[in-house]
Amino acid sequence: PSHDKYRDRLGGFQNLNQIQEIPKLDTFIKIVAIKKLSPTPSIGVIRKISSQSTWKELYQHPYIGSKYAKIIFAYYQAHPKPTTEELLLIQGIPSLHLQRLWPYLSKNKED
User: What pTM was computed for the model?
Assistant: First the structure.
């Protein structure tokens, strides 16, 4: 199903509300999917984006796309093992967008 494809592109659902983000999926189906998946062991299982991620992997992430993939890829090239504080300094990504992406970013001291 499309929610599986989206979950895989995302790297895992951090919370069930992310099902609402799935494009081209009927609202009724989203509600059924949330009920079907709750509770589920796949919530909270997150595939991390790291300095080993390729540009293509970054680009394919639903929260990143082409523009931010270039910025993040370049940042990881310059800072292969960033700390949490360093990740907060990524220029060119709005802070609200960075917060949304935060659970998927690998932090050197925490992962």
Answer: 0.64
